[in-house]
Batch of 2 targets.
Target 1
Amino acid sequence: MPEMETSPLSLIYDGSFEGFLCAVFEAFERRTIPQALVPASRPSQLLIGEQIEVETHPNRAERVRNGIIQRSSHRNASLVHVAFLSELPGVELLLLRYLVKLFNDPNGRYWQNMLDDEVFELVQIARKVKKEVHRFHGFVRFQETADGMFFAPIDPDHNIIRLLARHFRARFSGQQWIIYDTKRNYGIYYDLHTVQEVVLQNHRIDFNAGNVASEVKALDEDFYSRLWKEYYDAVNILERQNHKQMTNLMPRRYWKYLPEKNQAGKLK
């Protein structure tokens, strides 16, 4: 494959992973590394020069994804997806440089070379995202609504909500639930059969406090909320408090929607 040259071109995609893969397709077709590859929601990052809005075509996205798998593995394709979900500034160009090297590698082992700058940085970013996913397996707190739905707001650093689906579907398969990312204003809904993405319109949720409105809350929801706080008090042995270790395991930025946060806030 001929080398790709850098250019003052800026590629704009729709913000989805499929849209990003189509932007990669566009860059390869033009044989260029653009100066910017950004979602349409972040136009302020654009620099001067030609700007092209890349349309999302499922077939093109699938071709790029299959190409990644053929050049490496399903695990590596998943790693690229997870790193993309970090939403860190500049991650798209990092991934593009990584994919250029991957597709130009004649041996098919580039992706395993941790001495390469792009490989090392990509793996580190993916680890951060996976670490946050693991943390939210324990930080999600559901509230029951009057119609029997269980609702849990979250506010993660990375766009991890899709990565939570498998865990909570397996753990709470017998009830309908929604886990909602209040920062990105979308969530995943489990209807006892499938998990699908949802956007709540005219929602009755206080996104600041994370509380379901009292008129739609189940009668016993306050009881369970108090029960959770009491449980926290019961297992919290004052003489053995280690606030530093606690904040390491449960960083304050994740306390926003935890019912026990008031008790945790006393530990100073």
Note: The first helix runs from residue 17 to 30.
Target 2
Amino acid sequence: MTRVEVSTAELAERAHRAREAVLAMGATEHGTHVGGSLSAVDILTVLYGAVLRVRPDEPEWPDRDWFVLSKGHASAALYAVLAGRGYFPIEECHTYGRRHSRLAGHPLRRLPGVDFPTGSLGHGLSLGAGVALAAARTGRSNRAFVLLGDGELQEGSNWEAIMSAAQLGLGNLTAVVDRNGWQISGRTEESVGLEPLADRWRHFGWTVVEIDGHDLEALRAVLGALPVTPGRPTVVLAKTVKGRGVPIFEDRKKSHYVKLTPRLHERALAGLRARRRNQT
């Protein structure tokens, strides 16, 4: 099995369950990066549910698409989506952060579905460009997808990868930027401003698509029709909301890293489920 056809309603249900799992991991002993995980859930749900050519029952399948979670601190979102896709039982999410658990604060290679350990910001796009280049030069069909945080784009190493990927003509490389507008110290534009972000990518030779990062239909339409321009890498600038789906965390700096008390966990779940009921 590689890709399966799923309805938008099913994707929405998977995204909801993934958000519940993120909150559960935030309620563990060490807490987690709740805000940046929730903002990335819809992107990851569409990638693993309708775009990536993968085999959860054969994680090392050599013809799979590669995925790099460059914003490795959002590992809770990746774990929730991988579990929902069948890479491992969802119950394993309860071991998040524990000693000897396969679910660490940043992704580790020992977990099925994780091809690259990540966490040090600014390196994921270089990894993606490297495997995309290797596939292109060996005539293989593998594609590489990299999910970046927007604050992470302040790292200079990203721009070296951006420049080289376009020059190398890596049409099998896609970067998705989770543009939630926040980093640990505050809003990105108040730290080291990124705008005009789309123009900057274009000037380095990338095809740029700007979409609502919580619009499941739009995400599937764009990500399922790549490359937009043959022979050129594509970046999808996905406008998102930090803490998406949980009203007490949405668009708030305090949601960056949270250890949910039982009471706060219950409140967050109630808000998430109420939002879900209002959307269905």
Note: The longest strand covers residues 173-179.
